[in-house]
Amino acid sequence: MARIFVVANQKGGVGKTTTTVNLAAALARHGQRVLLVDLDPQGNATMGSGIDKRSLQRSVYHVLIGLASVEQTVQPSPSGDYMVLPANRELAGAEVELVDIDERETRLKQALAEVDSRYDFVLIDCPPSLSMLTLNGFCSAHGVIIPMQCEYYALEGLSDLVNTIKKVHANFNSDLTVIGLLRVMFDPRMTLAQQVSAQLEQHFGDKVFRTVIPRNVRLAEAPSYGQPGVVFDPGSRGAKAYLEFGAELIERLKAGA
Ligand code: ADP
Ligand code: MG
Q1: 208/182 Cα distance (integer angstroms)
Q2: Which of 24, 56, 158, 172 is deepest in the core (most CB within 10 A)?
Q3: What is the number of the ligand 1 atom nearest to the C-alpha of 20?
Q4: Which of 10, 18, 190 for mutating ligand 1's site (highest number of atoms within 8 Å of CB)?
């Protein structure tokens, strides 16, 4: 059975897509069968996996609306050893079209059920909002991975997100839990970053992943080459951190966390 994780944070630019793409590539490097689902109409995870979002015949949009199956729509990433259910701006229309469809919040969950046995991990990249798309992600998943920058407002945003996850848990998906908080774009030279990081550990204990992802320019450069940082420059500090994060996640799941 696939472990399905959604990478979410209602803020934009916090490292969701970078985390999804690099975790997908890292888990693949660790021998796992991975499907990345791009649920953001911006299609950044699609492009970052080396797939041109402008030339998609089918996308996750068609899957949500019921015009195609996941199997008909997935493509291998040419730059990482994983599969991608791609997205582009067409997906923005799904929001409106889903209004008339029954059980609209579980469209993705139903579609993914058909490919469950083919993957060890399904990773879902979400848009920066609590939209019907994100709700589909939450309803499909066993857990949420929350990337966050250790800055002043991070904790405030976090309580909103945790409340949302609690509501989804109560109303739609009793499987859903927070798998963990991932500190990203971390700059150890900043005192504030260290303080917020320590606060996170205090409040959330072992819900905070041990691995910390540093701010690393190679991770930011990789998408323009259509590659995950883990593939683009495997020796960089950022790539090494995501490889370590993949190993940590596998280890946690083995330990039953
Ligand atoms: P989101 O998906 O949450 O909007 P992104 O993953 O697209 O966030 O990241 C926002 C920007 O920050 C991108 O330009 C990305 O390349 C850059 N970035 C993300 N993580 C890192 C990192 N660890 N080091 C340096 N730049 C990063
Ligand atoms: Mg993104």
Answers
A1: 6
A2: 24
A3: 6
A4: 18
